[in-house]
Design brief:
Layout: H1 2-15, E1 23-28, E2 32-39, H2 44-48, H3 53-67, E3 72-79
Parallel strand pairs: 2-3
Antiparallel strand pairs: 1-2
Helix pairs in contact: 1-3
Protein backbone atom coordinates (compact mmCIF):
# COMPACT_ATOMS: atom_id res chain seq x y z
CA UNK A 1 0.00 0.00 0.00
CA UNK A 2 2.95 2.29 0.60
CA UNK A 3 3.74 2.27 -3.10
CA UNK A 4 0.24 3.48 -4.00
CA UNK A 5 0.48 6.31 -1.46
CA UNK A 6 3.98 7.24 -2.62
CA UNK A 7 2.83 7.26 -6.25
CA UNK A 8 -0.12 9.54 -5.49
CA UNK A 9 2.11 11.87 -3.48
CA UNK A 10 4.71 12.04 -6.24
CA UNK A 11 2.18 12.77 -8.99
CA UNK A 12 0.36 15.31 -6.80
CA UNK A 13 3.53 17.24 -6.01
CA UNK A 14 4.56 17.27 -9.68
CA UNK A 15 1.11 18.44 -10.79
CA UNK A 16 0.74 21.19 -8.18
CA UNK A 17 2.03 24.70 -8.69
CA UNK A 18 2.12 25.22 -4.90
CA UNK A 19 3.93 22.01 -3.94
CA UNK A 20 4.34 22.97 -0.30
CA UNK A 21 0.54 22.98 0.11
CA UNK A 22 0.07 19.34 -0.94
CA UNK A 23 -0.86 17.13 2.01
CA UNK A 24 -1.95 13.51 2.15
CA UNK A 25 -3.95 11.75 4.80
CA UNK A 26 -4.36 7.99 4.56
CA UNK A 27 -7.10 5.99 6.25
CA UNK A 28 -6.51 2.26 6.02
CA UNK A 29 -8.77 -0.67 6.76
CA UNK A 30 -8.71 -4.39 5.93
CA UNK A 31 -9.66 -3.91 2.26
CA UNK A 32 -7.48 -0.97 1.33
CA UNK A 33 -6.91 2.72 1.79
CA UNK A 34 -8.67 6.01 1.28
CA UNK A 35 -6.15 8.66 0.29
CA UNK A 36 -7.36 12.16 1.12
CA UNK A 37 -5.41 14.71 -0.90
CA UNK A 38 -5.47 18.36 0.17
CA UNK A 39 -4.18 20.96 -2.28
CA UNK A 40 -4.00 24.73 -2.51
CA UNK A 41 -7.30 26.24 -3.74
CA UNK A 42 -5.58 27.56 -6.88
CA UNK A 43 -4.52 24.01 -7.78
CA UNK A 44 -7.89 22.34 -7.23
CA UNK A 45 -9.04 22.81 -10.83
CA UNK A 46 -5.75 21.42 -12.06
CA UNK A 47 -6.31 18.22 -10.08
CA UNK A 48 -9.89 17.76 -11.18
CA UNK A 49 -9.13 18.44 -14.82
CA UNK A 50 -11.52 18.79 -17.72
CA UNK A 51 -14.57 16.62 -17.03
CA UNK A 52 -12.70 15.02 -14.12
CA UNK A 53 -10.15 13.31 -16.32
CA UNK A 54 -7.10 14.15 -14.20
CA UNK A 55 -8.54 12.94 -10.90
CA UNK A 56 -9.89 9.82 -12.60
CA UNK A 57 -6.43 9.07 -14.00
CA UNK A 58 -4.90 9.55 -10.56
CA UNK A 59 -7.51 7.20 -9.07
CA UNK A 60 -6.72 4.62 -11.74
CA UNK A 61 -2.99 4.81 -10.99
CA UNK A 62 -3.60 4.40 -7.26
CA UNK A 63 -5.99 1.48 -7.79
CA UNK A 64 -3.50 -0.26 -10.09
CA UNK A 65 -0.62 0.21 -7.66
CA UNK A 66 -2.70 -1.06 -4.73
CA UNK A 67 -4.14 -3.89 -6.81
CA UNK A 68 -0.69 -5.39 -7.23
CA UNK A 69 -0.89 -6.27 -3.52
CA UNK A 70 -4.52 -7.37 -3.64
CA UNK A 71 -5.70 -4.16 -2.00
CA UNK A 72 -7.99 -1.32 -3.04
CA UNK A 73 -7.26 2.40 -3.00
CA UNK A 74 -9.46 5.41 -3.53
CA UNK A 75 -8.37 9.01 -3.92
CA UNK A 76 -10.34 12.09 -2.92
CA UNK A 77 -9.13 15.64 -3.49
CA UNK A 78 -10.19 18.78 -1.65
CA UNK A 79 -9.07 22.34 -1.17
CA UNK A 80 -6.76 23.06 1.75
CA UNK A 81 -8.98 26.04 2.51
CA UNK A 82 -6.45 28.84 2.48
Amino acid sequence: MEKAVALVEYVARELATKRESVALEVQQDDEGAKIQLRVHPEDLGRFIGRNGRTINALRTLAAAAAGRNGMKATVEVESAGQ
